[in-house]
Amino acid sequence: MELLSAELSAETLAALQAHLATAKLNEESEVSEDFRLSQFWYDSRTGDALAAEAFEQSKGGPIAFVSTPAAFKALKALHPDRKDVYLFEYDHRFEEKYPTEFVFYDYNTPLALDSKFQHFFDYVLVDPPYLNINCMSKFAQTMRFLSKDVSARGQIQTPNAFITGAMHRLPKTLTLWMDGL
């Protein structure tokens, strides 16, 4: 910057410094909700509680956060050096912030994932963006794929959580179907 200060006018140098400061702030800023992607994130208390449960239940094993960026961010804040923690997410903004932990995930193609993740995770946390049978059944397929311990009948034995704020409003048939996961 010293070299530039000799070459640029004070006004131009001030504009450049302001631009660099803004760029640094943008780079360090958090990714925010995008309602167009049906993103409604947890408050910090809920995110922290889900992160703490994932940490405890995984017993040091790999954790998958599927469409749960707030809980993932909370875990990374609580345990920044924790390895084998992945965010499966549609929103590519997270790829920029977490390039080694981001895995692109589109629930419309629930099994289009790298085979290295098949039956890999000791804990899986999912939060489907929509409360309909199509979306939730595709998330269930993803949970079966990711979960380490799946029985011969296809039921998940790995500790996991299928989160939604409106579980109590689900039709009885969907609730019974989910019990069979």
Automatic annotation (TrEMBL):
GO terms for molecular function: nucleic acid binding; protein-lysine N-methyltransferase activity. It comes from the Eukaryota. GO terms for biological process: methylation. It is found in: Cytoplasm. The keyword Cytoplasm applies. Pfam families: N6-adenineMlase. One of its GO terms (cellular component) is cytoplasm. Keywords: Cytoplasm, Methyltransferase, Transferase. This is N(6)-adenine-specific DNA methyltransferase 2. It comes from Aphanomyces invadans.
